[in-house]
Design brief:
Layout lengths: L2 H15 L4 H8 L3 H9 L8 H14 L4 H8 L23 H68 L17 E7 L2 E7 L3 E8 L3 E7 L4 E7 L4 E7 L3 E6 L5 E5 L2 E2 L12 E8 L1
């Protein structure tokens, strides 16, 4: 049995351990199902080329929670060589369009808006001219009426001011505003791991909202696994951490895993489209 078949069998075993179908993996990685099956079979001849073969294997590893650098190191001799390291594979719909097509798209988008704005301006100008022609005779009457109304209002306000001075309500003491919740502070990034600090608290609620298959685990400072789960599309979950010095979140598919820390939405340090597999280290500072 060749090493390529061993690699394919290894990836297939890891996928089946996490109960991920090829259809779910296709959704998570944006790679066609037939290419994923070819990787498991070691049949790289049907793939677009060596560069895409390495890129597809990298995305496959990250989607099932594997460290692709470790996998590449173990099977490097049998994986097709590429002129440069693989990047995140982008489907054709997400690739940048040519300047000409973008310019045409902008023109199609904004020309109707300009036309509508011009029509509205002409209508408003016509209304203004009509009001100027028919409103001149009424201006003097309106001015006299407003003068009488203003005089009456001034008299009422004077009486009201005199009464309010007699009984002025005592000022209410200002209510104390609650202290803001502790916020995460970004510190440093090493490889796929970004460290944050949470000052003044050792308690944290982490909300997970899943839009596609994703593997997640949480470890403490000693490396002990506190939580592990293979999420499916549509699932939500809340994990509460208490009394820990630090926790490490291993997110297998960041583009399908939305996080909230203590009720605040979390923005990944690296866009999930650029890095699917990310790790978040949180240190609790007294």
């Amino acid at each position: 049995m060749v090493r390529l078949t061993e690699l394919g069998q290894y990836l297939k075993d890891k996928r089946e351990e996490k109960n991920i179908t090829l259809e779910e993996l296709q959704t998570a990685t944006k790679i066609q199902k037939r290419y994923l099956a070819a990787i498991e079979e070691g049949n790289y001849s049907i793939l677009p080329g060596p560069f895409y073969a390495r890129a597809f294997i990298k995305n496959y590893c990250e989607a099932v929670g594997l460290d692709y650098e470790t996998v590449f190191g173990q099977y490097e001799k049998d994986i097709p060589k590429a002129a440069r390291e693989p990047e995140e594979f982008k489907p054709r719909s997400e690739r940048p369009r040519s300047p000409g097509s973008e310019r045409d798209s902008v023109l199609k988008k904004y020309v109707p808006i300009f036309i509508i704005a011009a029509v509205i301006a002409l209508v408003l100008a016509g209304i203004y001219m009509l009001m100027q022609n028919f409103g001149g005779d009424q201006a003097e009457e309106k001015k006299a009426s407003e003068s009488l109304i203003q005089t009456d209002q001034d008299a009422k306000q004077k009486k009201g001011a005199e009464k309010s001075k007699e009984k002025e309500p005592a000022e209410k003491p200002e209510e104390e505003k609650p202290a803001p919740a502790p916020a995460l502070t970004k510190k440093e990034t090493e490889g796929i791991t970004t460290a944050y600090e949470l000052a003044g608290s050792d308690t944290m609620e982490i909300d997970f909202s899943i839009s596609g298959p994703s593997y997640v685990d949480i470890k403490d400072a000693s490396g002990k696994i506190l939580f592990t789960k293979q999420f499916k599309k549509g699932e939500t979950y809340t994990y509460k951490s208490e009394g820990q010095k630090e926790i490490l979140l291993n997110i297998g598919a960041a583009h399908t895993t939305q996080l909230k820390f203590n009720g605040t939405a979390f923005e990944y340090p690296v866009a999930p489209a650029d890095r699917v597999h990310q790790k978040i280290l949180i240190r609790f500072v007294p």
